[in-house]
Design a protein that fits this description.
With about 350 residues, the protein is α+β, with helices and mostly antiparallel strands. It contains 8 helices and 20 strands. The structure holds adenosine-5'-triphosphate. Adenosine-5'-triphosphate binds next to strand 2 and helix 1.
Length: about 350
């Protein structure tokens, strides 16, 4: 089911939690909503679910308007299912009862409910635990129950609010695989809220980065990483350094030459996003993998942390700006190293 938001804003008294958000999610897509705490991710998810009302703008599901000025279709009539961070399981019910609860609310026939229950429990690998109560399950198993309860419904959209936040790092990796597999196998549209960029990049076909209630960028994980739309996205997603660099000549095609630490460096640039009046100074994103030892740029090591198998190093340029890079060996603090920058991205301003 396709999701479309048009100029959606949401105000809570003095707080404007979402500002003029327009985005479209195609049927069957996996959208990750990514951004720092308080940026409006959960509010956006709850607006799609129908747990919140829009202050302005409209929401459409499969082309049918479900929220807008003077319109609010309730959650149970939107064909969406929600998976909460807290799992929201009923402790007095068994796993099977928890999973099939939405079906009893929707008055699905007993035979159909039994079939869907079996299918949903099998999909999450819990067919053997149907008679257990939630208290007798591990965190990962509880999360699977919550997922099965979303899958058992006839919902074409599954909305997930930081579903892995309470799990340890190993279980997270397993559950990431599980979400990916279930998305592929069920063909449903997933919207997944996270503040963890590695989760967003690993899972999603599209990533929406929110900042202060504003949609900073909506693009594929690869584009978000390689071509962030602004400095906030560049700083929030992935490791790297944003440095200000001089630019004297206009880009040719999608390449520009900038000056960093007195050296010419070729970077990628989107035509039309660099200043028209030159010379100028522009922000450039440089990822650690685009910096290699050797070369004509001198930098002084100010910090080094072992990150197995590499050492994550911070090195200061003469003008005081810093670069983040990876080295196979630990440099001495204060040591001057020579570097080459092989790639960069001229961040639009
Ligand atoms: N019911 C509410 N009443 C008042 N303010 C609210 C309400 N819900 C959210 N907000 C405010 O709206 C903003 C966005 O909140 P939201 O929960 O959507 O952010 P988030 O990105 O999901 O954050 P987190 O990652 O911390 O969960 C915050 O400033 C929050 O305090």
């Amino acid at each position: 089911m396709a999701i479309s938001l048009s100029h959606v804003s949401r105000r809570f008294d003095a707080v404007l939690a979402l500002k003029d958000i327009s985005l479209t999610v195609e049927d069957g897509a996996f959208l990750a909503l990514l951004g720092p705490s308080g940026c409006g991710k959960t509010t956006l998810l709850r607006l799609v679910a129908g747990f919140e009302k829009v202050s302005e703008g409209s929401v459409a599901l499969s082309g049918r308007q479900v929220a807008g000025p003077a319109l609010h279709i309730p959650p149970e009539e939107r064909q969406v299912a929600m998976v909460f961070q807290s799992y929201a399981l009923w402790p007095h019910m068994t796993v099977a009862e928890n999973v099939s609860f939405p079906l009893s609310v929707a008055r699905v026939s007993a035979a159909e409910a039994a079939k869907r229950l079996t299918h949903a429990l099998e999909a999450v690998g819990l067919a053997h635990l149907g008679q257990r109560r939630p208290e007798a399950l591990s965190g990962g198993q509880r999360q699977r129950v919550a997922l099965a309860r979303a899958l058992v419904q006839d919902a074409r959209v599954v909305l997930c609010d930081e579903p892995l936040a309470n799990l340890d790092i190993h279980l997270r990796a397993t559950m990431l695989d599980e979400f990916r597999r279930l998305h592929r196998e069920t063909g449903r549209t997933f919207v997944y809220v996270t503040h963890d960029q590695s989760e967003a990049l690993a899972l999603a076909s599209q990533v929406a980065v929110l900042n202060g209630g504003v949609l900073s960028q909506l693009a594929s994980p690869q584009a978000i990483y390689a071509e962030p739309a602004n400095i906030d996205v560049a700083r929030f997603v992935g490791e790297g350094s944003v440095v200000r660099a001089g630019i004297e000549t206009p880009p040719t095609g999608d390449r520009a030459v900038v000056r960093i630490a007195g050296q010419d460096v070729q970077v990628r640039a989107r035509p039309g996003t660099t200043p028209a009046a030159l010379p100028a100074s522009i922000p450039v994103l440089i990822r650690p993998e685009a910096i290699s030892p050797g070369g004509d740029i001198a930098a002084r090591v100010t910090a080094s942390i072992y990150r197995g198998p590499v050492h994550a190093v911070t090195a200061a340029l003469d003008d005081g700006q810093s670069l983040q890079l990876h080295l196979p060996h630990a440099p001495a603090i204060g040591e001057t190293i020579s570097l080459r920058i092989t790639d960069g991205w001229a961040i639009p301003e």
